[in-house]
Amino acid sequence: MMERMIAKELLSIGAVFLRPEEPFTWASGIKSPIYCDNRLTLSAPDVRGKVEAGLATLVKRYHPDCQMLMGTSTAGIAHAAITAVLLGLPMGYVRGEAKSHGRTNRIEGKMEPGTKVVVIEDLISTGGSAVEVVEALREAGAEVLGIVSIFTYGMKRGLERIAAAGTVNHSLSNLDALVDEAVEEGLIDASWKERILAFRDNPSDESWIK
pLDDT over 90 for what percent of the chain? Predict the structure, then answer.
């Protein structure tokens, strides 16, 4: 099962790990039992190869008509580039905002209007950054087929945002698979499973910590 295999690989390099008894604090102030930094896959060749092959598989499976990959800035850029090589496709990326100099581009890479594009993202949490990229590409005339990502928390807000934007996300792995793998490996106690998933379902409610 791809979800569990990728979860195992991410845990093995500390790209994603769980610390329920000593929560992380997000920039928003929300306390979280999970930390995710998929950039670490780039410096782990074996894991990176599995991740990029998995992204390529998802693109081919769900978006066989894809003509171009677009990475989110900055975390999705390298993954989009490597996956594009595997698929033999052109790629580009979308900046968080347009440059203030030169050609003031926000979208980097040559993309003709009507191009069928798949967005490559490393992490889906609330979905905000991925949806912004989708909207920027549409404004530039692209036909956005969907989003393909490495990992998703599966948060309700993220699912709703993506659906409201009229698009879809497919991830290599997710929080459910990660928690199951972490319990099986003895990284967390089984009693924490439901509490971590409770955080995912309502991140502003800190009752899961107690």
Answer: 78
Is it true that the peptide bond before 115 is cis, omega within 30 degrees of 0? no
Q: Give pTM, 2 decimals.
A: 0.93
Q: DSSP readout, 84-153?
A: HHHHT--EEEE-SS--SSTT--SEES---TT-EEEEEEEEESS-HHHHHHHHHHHHTT-EEEEEEEEEE-
Give the pLDDT band (50/70/90) at residue 20. Answer: confident
User: Based on the number of CB atoms within 10 Å of its own CB, is 159 exposed (0-12), middle (13-18) or buried (19 or more)?
Assistant: middle
Q: What is the pLDDT of residue 102?
A: 39
- Give the tens place of pLDDT for each residue, 63-75: 999 999 999 998 9
Which sign, positive or negative, has the C-alpha torsion 10, 11, 15, 16? positive
Q: Could you give the CA distance from residue 37 to residue 56 in angstroms, rounded to a whole number?
A: 20
